[in-house]
Design a protein that fits this description.
27 helices, about 45% helix, rod-shaped, alpha/beta
Length: about 950
C-alpha cells in the first residue's frame, strides 16, 4: 500500500509538471544529451548534495552543489564507451544515444529525472497495462548509491524498465521478488563484508569498531558484516551510525570521533560516503588520532581523500574495491573534452568553468558570494585568466585528480547493453533487422542471459542479477605528504579466499613490515583455550586439563586424547604413557640384585665355616643344625628379591610374597626356638611349671608348626585375595603407568602375613629380654634382641612408607627384605664365624668364674647352681671337673632367694634338643656350697 501511494503521488507530480507548457524539461532537468536510435538513460551524482534540502517545503526545483569530480569522470566513461560502440559499428545501422541526469546524491532528485526520461511527447502516459509501453529511454544506467538505486528500481518495477548499475551493492537488490528489474556488474555487499571480515581475521585483528551510514547501503552492509564477523571470530567494540547529510551531521561526527578515540579498538570499519569520511578524518587529524581504517568500496580508492592535508597522520588505510582497469584511450579522451556531436553536456561546461574560468576576485581577502569554495578554487588552472574562451581549453588535470581506472565497470555496463541489443535487434555484420522502438522489458530479458568478454574479463549475470568476480585489496601507502593506492591482493568471491600479491608492505603504525597486533585479548597459545568473558573476542586463557590438549591458537575447547595416550596440564599433544617398574637395567634394581646375590654368597661362606668348625664351642652354642635351617630360610628370602625385578606378572606377584613369607618365617621360627631354649634353661619357675614348659620344647616340631601356620596363611591369601598385577588407573598428573603388584583387593592377607612374622619376632624379642642379664658367653640373647629389634624397626618404617607411597612400594619392600635379612646375618652368623676363626679356643670355666665374680659383686648376685652338660660327656660331672660347659648358659639366682641346697633336680638342655633332669651328689653339693662361700663378696 505504501508503494502504491508513493507511485501515485509521484505520477501525479509528474503529470502536474508535464502540463506546464513552454518549459524545456530536457535541458532543465538533465544536463547532457545526445540523440540516437536507442536512448540510454544515465543517472550519476555529478554533485554531492542538494542544497538546503532539509529546508525544502515546496515542490520547487532542486538546486545541487559541490561538483563531484570523480562522478563526473565516471559519466564521461559511460559516454565515451557509447561513442566507441557507435564508432566501431558494433550495432550496424543503429546509433546509440544517451540522456545524462544528475541525481545529486538524492533519491528525490533521481525520481524527478525519471519523470523526464519516461515521458512521451512531454507527458507521462498513464495506462492500466504497460506491456506495450515504449518510452524513449529503454534502460537506466547507474544511480550509483544503493539508496537512490532502490528508489529508482521501485519506480521501474511498474514499467519493467531495466536498471543496470555498476556501483550499487546493497544486498537487498539481489532480491528479485522486490527488485526484478535490477541487474549489476558488481557483487552484493554480502561478499564484500565477507572479504572485510576475512582480511581482518587474516591479519589477526578481532576487536573492531564500525561506523556505517544511515541509508540502505550502510545498514545492509553493516548487517552483512555482523554475520561475516561472527563467522570469522571478529567482535565489535562499538557501532555508530552517521547520516550522509553533513549540514546536520557535524556535531554527530564529533561524538563518533570521541567514541573512536576512547575505545580500545584500534581497527575501524567505515561504511559511509566519501564526504562523511572526509569530515571524520579532519576531526581525527585535529586530535592527532591514528587508527587502522577499513574502507568500503564507496571510498576505498578516493583520490580526493588521498590528497587531504596531513592524511599521513590518520594511520593505515586499506579496503576492498571492485575490479578496475585503466584505459589509455579513455585517458586521451579526457584530455580533449567536448560534447558529443549533435548533443550537449552542461557538466563539461561546469567543469571547464571551474578549471579555466578566470575568477581572480575569488582569491581576494573578501571574495564575492558567487565564488566557489576554497576546495574548488584549487581546481583553477594557472592559465585560467590568460584564455579567452574557457570552453575551448583542455589539459590532463582530470586524469591526475581522479582515478580513471575506477571507470572500468561503467564501461562494462554499456558493453552489456550493447551485447543485449545486438541479440534483441537481430544484428549481423551488416545490419540490425529488429524493431528499434521495442518495449524495455524485452531488453531486460536479453540482459539476464547476456554473456560477453571485455578487456580479458568474462561477464554474466547470475540468478540474482549479480556479476560475481573478485575484489581488489587496496592499501593506502605513503607518497610524500599524500597517499597512493597500491593493489596488494584480491578476494575471490566464489572461493571466499584472500590472495595477497604483496606480503611484506610497510605499516605506518609500526614503521616496518610487522603487522600491528590489535586484539581484545592476547591469543591463547597451544596448550590453552579461551574462556570467554563478555564477548567472544575478550577472554582469559586457561590451560587444558590432564587428558586433553590444544594444538592451535585460540581454540574454544580442548581435545580429548585418543585411546592409549595421555597429556599433562597445558600440553599441546598427547603421548603414550611410559611403563614404570623395576627394570633390570636401572641402577636401583641392579644395586638390590647385587645385594641379594652377595647375601646368598655370604650365607654360603658362613655355611662352610659352620660345617668346618661345627665342633668348636661357639658353633656348639650357636646350634649348627638350627643355624643351617636359618640360612636356608634367609637364602629363600634373598631369592624372593629377584621376583621384585622386571615387568610384573601375576606369577611373580604371588611367588615373591610366598617365598619371602615362608623363608623368613622359617628363619624367625629358629630364632624363637633359641630364645625359648634360653628362657627355659635359665629362668626359674616352679617345678610343675618347669616340667610343663620343658615338655613343649620340641625344636623341630615348633619350627614346622610355626612355618606351617604361615603356609596356611599364604594359601588362604592366594585363594581368597590373591596378589595380582595392579590394574588401578594411573594418576592423571603422571605420564608414567606404574606396573606393579597389588597385594590383593583388601590387603588383608598381606597384612596378616607380615603381622604373623612380626608376632613371632615380637615373642622372640620378649623372650630374649627375659634372659638379657645372662652372660653372652652362655647365650645369644643379645644377638636375638638386636636382630629382632632391627627387624621390627625396619618393617615398622616400611608400613607407613608403603601406605603413603604406593608407587614405590615394590622398591621399599625389597629394600626392607634385604635390610632385615642382612641384620640377621650380621647379628647371628658373622660373630659366631669370627669367634670360630679368630677367637681363643680355650673357654675355661675359671675364666668365666672370674668374670662372674666381678659381675655378682657389682650386682649383688651369687651363683647357686650350675649344671652344664657337654654333648658326648657323662650326664654327671667328673670330680676333676666341677663344672661342665653346656650349650646353654647358666642359671642365676638372687642372693635373697637362696635356699639351702638339697637333692633337688637340675634341668640341663642338651645340644640334641632334649633337656636332662638330674640331681647333685652330697659331695658335689658340699663343693658347690664351699664355692659359693668363696665367691661371695
Amino acid at each position: 500500500m505504501q508503494l502504491l501511494r508513493l507511485l501515485c503521488s509521484l505520477l501525479l507530480a509528474m503529470v502536474t509538471l508535464s502540463v506546464i507548457e513552454g518549459c524545456d524539461f530536457g535541458q532543465f532537468i538533465c544536463g547532457a544529451r545526445a540523440p540516437g536510435d536507442v536512448i540510454l538513460g544515465i543517472m550519476l551524482p555529478l554533485h554531492r548534495k542538494v542544497k538546503d534540502i532539509h529546508e525544502r517545503i515546496r515542490p520547487e526545483n532542486f538546486q545541487c552543489s559541490d561538483f563531484d569530480l570523480q562522478s563526473f569522470m565516471r559519466s564521461l566513461a559511460t559516454i565515451h564507451e557509447i561513442e566507441e560502440i557507435n564508432a566501431a559499428g558494433f550495432l550496424p545501422g543503429v546509433h546509440l544515444g544517451y540522456m545524462l541526469c544528475d541525481t545529486c546524491s538524492s533519491a528525490s532528485k533521481a525520481l524527478q529525472n525519471l519523470g523526464h526520461m519516461l515521458e512521451l511527447n512531454n507527458t507521462l502516459d498513464m495506462r492500466c497495462n504497460y506491456n506495450d509501453y515504449r518510452p524513449e529511454v529503454k534502460i537506466i544506467l547507474g544511480a550509483f548509491y544503493s539508496e537512490v538505486t532502490i528508489a529508482v528500481a521501485r519506480m521501474m518495477n511498474l514499467f519493467m524498465v531495466p536498471v543496470l548499475t555498476s556501483v550499487s551493492s546493497a544486498p537487498e537488490l539481489s532480491d528479485k521478488t522486490r527488485f526484478p528489474v535490477v541487474l549489476r556488474t558488481v557483487a552484493s555487499d554480502k561478499h564484500q563484508t565477507k572479504a572485510i571480515a576475512r582480511i581482518v581475521h587474516q591479519f589477526g585483528w578481532n576487536w573492531i569498531g564500525v561506523v556505517y551510514g544511515d541509508d540502505e547501503y550502510g545498514r545492509g552492509a553493516f548487517q552483512g558484516f555482523l554475520e561475516a564477523a561472527e563467522a570469522n571470530s571478529v567482535c565489535l567494540a562499538y557501532q555508530e551510525m552517521l547520516s550522509h547529510y553533513l549540514d546536520d551531521n557535524i556535531k554527530r561526527i564529533r561524538q563518533v570521533a570521541q567514541q573512536i578515540r576512547s575505545s580500545s579498538a584500534r581497527v575501524v570499519l567505515l561504511i559511509i560516503r566519501e564526504e562523511v569520511v572526509e569530515a571524520l578524518f579532519k576531526e581525527m587529524i585535529s586530535t592527532n588520532t591514528s587508527r587502522i581504517w577499513i574502507a568500503s568500496d564507496v571510498w576505498s580508492k578516493s583520490k580526493s581523500l588521498a590528497q587531504m592535508e596531513s592524511i599521513n597522520k590518520i594511520g593505515d588505510i586499506l579496503g576492498f574495491n571492485f575490479i578496475s582497469h585503466r584505459s589509455e584511450v579513455f585517458d586521451n579522451y579526457l584530455k580533449n573534452l567536448t560534447a558529443t556531436p549533435g548533443g550537449y553536456n552542461l557538466f563539461i561546461e561546469e567543469y571547464k568553468n571551474l578549471r579555466f574560468n578566470c575568477s581572480s576576485e575569488c582569491f581576494s581577502n573578501y571574495p564575492p558570494s558567487y565564488c566557489p569554495s576554497l576546495k574548488y578554487l584549487k581546481m583553477k588552472s594557472g592559465h585560467a585568466c590568460g584564455t579567452e574562451n574557457p570552453q575551448e581549453q583542455n589539459d590532463d588535470y582530470l586524469i591526475k585528480a581522479s582515478d580513471t581506472s575506477d571507470a572500468f565497470l561503467h564501461k562494462v555496463t554499456v558493453r552489456a547493453v550493447a551485447y543485449a541489443l545486438k541479440k534483441l535487434l537481430k544484428c549481423n555484420s551488416f545490419s540490425c533487422s529488429g524493431e528499434i522502438n521495442f518495449q524495455p522489458w524485452k531488453l531486460l530479458q536479453e540482459l539476464k542471459n547476456v554473456q560477453f568478454e571485455f578487456d580479458g574479463y568474462n561477464f554474466f549475470f547470475d540468478e540474482n542479477g549479480d556479476s560475481l568476480h573478485f575484489y581488489d585489496l587496496i592499501m593506502w601507502q605513503k607518497d610524500g605528504d599524500h597517499r597512493r593506492h597500491l593493489r596488494i591482493g584480491k578476494y575471490h568471491v566464489l572461493d571466499e579466499k584472500v590472495e595477497l600479491y604483496v606480503k611484506n608492505f610497510n605499516w605506518l603504525l609500526t614503521g616496518n613490515t610487522t603487522v600491528p597486533a590489535y586484539r581484545c585479548s592476547v591469543p591463547c597459545a597451544p596448550g590453552s583455550v579461551k574462556k570467554i568473558l563478555n564477548v567472544s573476542c575478550c577472554h582469559n586463557c586457561t590451560l587444558c586439563s590432564e587428558g586433553t590438549y590444544s594444538d592451535d591458537y585460540d581454540l574454544h575447547s580442548c581435545k580429548k586424547c585418543p585411546n592409549g595416550t595421555w597429556s599433562l596440564k597445558g600440553w599441546t599433544q598427547c603421548r603414550p604413557r611410559s611403563e614404570s617398574y623395576m627394570r633390570w637395567s636401572d641402577p636401583h634394581p641392579i644395586t638390590m640384585m647385587t645385594a641379594a646375590a652377595f647375601g646368598i654368597l655370604l650365607l654360603l661362606v658362613v655355611f662352610i665355616i659352620f660345617l668346618v668348625y661345627r665342633d668348636s664351642p661357639p658353633m656348639k652354642r650357636a646350634e649348627v643344625r638350627l643355624s643351617c635351617v636359618m640360612m636356608a630360610g634367609l637364602s629363600v628370602s634373598f631369592a624372593s628379591v629377584i621376583c621384585f625385578m622386571g615387568r610384573p606378572n601375576v606369577h611373580l606377584c604371588r611367588a615373591r610374597q610366598v617365598m619371602y613369607a615362608m623363608g623368613f618365617t622359617l628363619c624367625i621360627s629358629c630364632i624363637l626356638v633359641k630364645a625359648y631354649r634360653t628362657f627355659l634353661a635359665f629362668l626359674p619357675f616352679g617345678q610343675l611349671t618347669n616340667r610343663r614348659l620343658h615338655k613343649l620344647y620340641r625344636p623341630p616340631v615348633i619350627v614346622i608348626i610355626l612355618t606351617a601356620l604361615q603356609g596356611i596363611i599364604c594359601l588362604l591369601w592366594l585363594i581368597f585375595d590373591s596378589p595380582d598385577v595392579d590394574k588401578t588407573p594411573p594418576s592423571p598428573q603422571s605420564m608414567r603407568k606404574q606396573i606393579q603388584c597389588s597385594e590383593g583387593a583388601t590387603y588383608i592377607g598381606f597384612g596378616i602375613m607380615l603381622g604373623y612374622i612380626a608376632l613371632l619376632a615380637l615373642v622372640g624379642f620378649l623372650l630374649a629380654i627375659k634372659g638379657r642379664k645372662v652372660p653372652q658367653e652362655f647365650s645369644e640373647t643379645g644377638y636375638i634382641l638386636f636382630s629382632m629389634l632391627m627387624y621390627l624397626f625396619v618393617w615398622g618404617c616400611f608400613v607407613p612408607v608403603y601406605i603413603t607411597n604406593n608407587e614405590q612400594g615394590t622398591a621399599v619392600q625389597a629394600s626392607a627384605i634385604l635390610v632385615s635379612t642382612y641384620g640377621i646375618i650380621f647379628c647371628h652368623f658373622l660373630p659366631k664365624s669370627y669367634q670360630a676363626l679368630w677367637a681363643s679356643k680355650r673357654n675355661t670355666l675359671e675364666r668365666i668364674r672370674r668374670g662372674w665374680q666381678t659381675t655378682s659383686c657389682q650386682s649383688n648376685f651369687s651363683v647357686t647352681e650350675i649344671a652344664i652338660d657337654i654333648p658326648g660327656m657323662n650326664r654327671y660331672p667328673r670330680k676333676s671337673e666341677r663344672f661342665s660347659v653346656s650349650s646353654t648358659t647358666t642359671i642365676l639366682r638372687s642372693s635373697e632367694s637362696i635356699i639351702q641346697a638339697s637333692h633337688e633336680p637340675v634341668f640341663s638342655p642338651m645340644s640334641n634338643g632334649n633337656i636332662h633332669v638330674y640331681t647333685l651328689s652330697n659331695q658335689q653339693e658340699t663343693q658347690l656350697k664351699k664355692r659359693r662361700r668363696s665367691m661371695s663378696c
